[in-house]
Every structure is written in C-alpha cells, then in structure tokens.
Amino acid sequence: MSSPAPKSPELSDKSKKYDRQIRLWGEHGQTLLEAATVCLVNVTAVGCETSKGLVLPGIGGFTVADGSTVKEEDLGNNFFLDSSYLGKSKALACMQLLQELNPDVNGDYVEESADFLLANRPNFFDSFDLVIASNLNEHTLLLLAERLWELNVPLIYCRSLGMLGTIRLQIREHCIVEAHPDNRQFDLRLEHPFDALRDHLAGTEVTSKVPWLLVLHKYLNVWQKQQADGTQTPRNYKEKNQLKETIREEMKADEENYEEAIKAVNTAFGAGQVPKSLKAIFEDDACEQLNKKSNVFWIMAKALKHFVIHENEGHLPLPGVLPDMTANTDSYIALQHIYRQQALQDADQVYHKCQEYLKQLALPADSIDERSVRLICKEAAGLAVIRGTRIAEEYEKSSRLLPLVEDNELQGNLTAYNFALRAYERFLSECGNIPGECIVEQDIGRLKSISAKMLGDLGMHATISDDVLHEICRYGGAELHAVSAFIGGCAAQEVIKIITKQYKPIDNTFIYNAITTESVTLKL
C-alpha cells in the first residue's frame, strides 16, 4: 500500500486572503503596504475609487479629510456615499463604507477641508506616507502640493471631469530596486565563467541528460576556436547562426537539451554588464557623496559600484537565478547550487562594504540588513531612480513646456484637455463656481479668457480651441463613475508602486480621454 502524498503547508488566513497580490509584489511588498498610512483629501468618486484600490489589498490605514456634507447630487456617481448619510459628514460616510471592504484596515476621518487643515493644522500631513487628493481648485492644490513637497511626502493628484481624467505624481525622489522588467535576461556568465562554474563545466560530461547550459558552453568553445579574430561570443545574426549550426550538427535524434541550447543562443550572452541606467546611478552625486542623511539605497548603490569596479572586473553581482531546463534532477540542482552559492558570495562582499560605509558615517549597523543587499544585488541590472518635479513648476514659465506647442497650437487633444482642466481649476478659484453649472455660454467666454491668460503667463504662445473649452463647460463639474473608476484604479496602482518600491510609477502626468479611449504620459 502506497503512502499518502505529503500535504502542502497550510497557508495563513492572511496569505489566503492576499494570495494573488503577494504573487505580484511578494511578502516583503505586502509588509510595506500593511505598514503604510495614506490620506484622502476631498471625497469625490475618483478619490474614493483610488482608496478602494488600496483598502482591498490591505493598506495599513487611511484617513479621509473633507469638511463638506453629503448632498443629493453626490449620490449618483459615488458608491461610497448613500442616502442614509444625507446631510451628514462626507468624510465619515466615505470612511465607514470603505472600511466595510476590509475590516483589517484602520480607517479614520477628519471633518475639515484641506484649506482649513493647511491654515490651522499644517502638521496634519506629517505622519502620512502618501497623500491622495482630487478635484481641488488651483489655490488649494498649490498650497497642498507645496506643503507636501516641503515634508517630502508623495502626492498623487487625480482629476475626473466628464469623459476626461488625469493623474499627476509629485515626488522628490523615488528609488526602485524591483522594477520587474518585461523581458528579463538571465545572467548566466557563460562568456566569463566564475571559478566554480568553470570547474563544473570542465568536469561534467555533456550528455542528453545535462542542462542545456553545458551543451551551449561546450559548442561555444568549439565555435570560438573557429574564429580567426578571437571573438568570444556571437555578436550578430550571422555569428549566432554559425553557433546554432555547430550545435545542430552534433545532435542525435531528439535531444531536448540540444534543442534548448540552440534556442538559447539568442539570449544567453551579454548579461552581467553595467547598463546605462545603472551607470547613471553610479555617477550620481547622491552615490558619490554619502552623508548621514543618505537614503540606504544610495549607500548600497555605492557599495555595489565598488564591488563592480574593484572586485568583479566590471561585472554585476551574479543574480543566481537559472531558467527552467530539461535535464535530470541531480545535474540541474548541482548547477543551480553553484549559481546560488556564487550569488551569495557576491552579495556578502557588497554587504561588508555597506557595513564599512555605515561605520564611516556613524550610522547603526542594522540600518542595512543582508536580505536587502541580496535583493539589490539580484536586481542590480534593473535599478532605477525617479526624480520628480513640483506641481507648482507647471504654473511657472519653463522650457519643458515649449515642446507641447507647435504653430501656436497645443500638441494633441490630450495635452489641450490637460491645460483646459487646469484652466477649469483656476476658474473655480477666481470665480467661486463651477463653469457650466448655470449659464454655459457666459462661462465659456470667462473660461477662454482665463485659459488665454494662464498660457500667456507660462510663456506659451498658444490657445485652447473653443471646442475643448465648450466640452469642459458642458460637463458642468460632473464626474462619471466609469471614468472615475478607471482613473482611480490606475492611481491606486501608482500608490502601491510607490509604497512597495516595486515597478516603475508614471513620471509624472497621465491623461485619459474616455471618448476616444486615448491616453498619454507626459513629464511636466
């Protein structure tokens, strides 16, 4: 009688609940998410949809700030307000209905407007990891953005008006370790094998049962001897085909590892070099000139640079990850062990250099742990740094805006809509009412005048077409739930990217037109 198969380890309740997202950003990403607190400023449909996208995956806590009460017109587009809350606090209603989605998340609310908080409680925003705001007037937006820039608290500002939506990310500096590139290349080091790999390759007989990496290495050596100019790896289509033919000539019947080796010729070489993006990080002043206030990312980046230049002949640390290969279990595990051990050894050297730098800066040794160093070594080829701009800079003359204008016209409808939405926000500040709410034709003229002055102040000799301005006024300040849900979902993803420090967020403006289903990302 056969023994029963071993049971898989039981998942915790939390792991079951969040299993699908943990597959995306890992346990460490989930831990960062559960430790974060965010603030939602202004209860709108798009703001609530953004918050929904954070409460469901288990954000640590959220606070809703809004000084207004629920009115009839709020009920048509916002699922997080209902008739039982008519005349009551919007902040309370939104907080309670959001918290019902996930009781594990801590919710709080403040019945005060952003203007009141900035004027009377300027330290209110200090404790948040990120602030989400939506559909503010220009005056309030600029005050809030400046305060958060001073505090170094990221701001995601969402607009949703009729069939239009935008997201603007304001962040000083964002360092990304796990960028999750779409086409990750495995670093196999075949052209520059390290000692343990070289010994293994030399001491293992190539058969139909070994991983394709050994097959490829064997015939790479054969191909190298055929090259009169001493070429070490195939550089172009012709040379790669020559190597493929060299392997194919030695095949007997159906040998899967040989077939895999032939396929791997296109992608197996060239990894382990320092890409341009990482070189820029190495040459950055923040990497060159460490101080006590340096982000630990930059300390690890400098240690990584030292390892690459002085200890590893210009190559990156080995990630230690192998692709799947057809082979017998023992030979694959043996090869996998060699790569993992070398990766640990490389990471250990980088870790010890990090400890040296921490000691020089008189910082605690536990500021950087071994796990963090192993992760940055594994992901070294994809490291990225984003340095953002203040929202206020968009309201000042800047050469960055000039490429958006050609022949006195704003380039593209999406760009025109973005500036029209800004004119809409200035209209709210200057006129005190929503354009198109009462007399559409009169408001179109006022909006046109405001937009012309706004573009003139920016040094942009351009106009926004009457059709675009008419569209803005026609909406009368209305949010459509479908558009707000889409923009909110996108914004929630950007928040998660920032909190988990994984995947690259937008840099820095996303514009969406639901009429044409077009979108564009601009750096403003």
From TrEMBL:
Residue span(s) of domain THIF-type NAD/FAD binding fold: 18-517
Part of which pathway? Protein modification; protein neddylation
Matches recorded under Gene3D superfamilies: NAD(P)-binding Rossmann-like Domain (3.40.50.720)
* UniProt xrefs under InterPro entries: APP-BP1, ThiF/MoeB/HesA, ThiF_NAD_FAD-bd, Ubiquitin-activating_enz
Coiled-coil region list: 237-268
Report keywords, A-Z.
Answer: Coiled coil, Ubl conjugation pathway
Name the Pfam families on file. ThiF
- For this UniProt entry, what's an example GO CC term? NAE1-UBA3 complex
Q: According to its UniProt record, which protein family does this protein belong to? A: Belongs to the ubiquitin-activating E1 family. ULA1 subfamily.
Please report the name of this protein according to its UniProt entry: NEDD8-activating enzyme E1 regulatory subunit
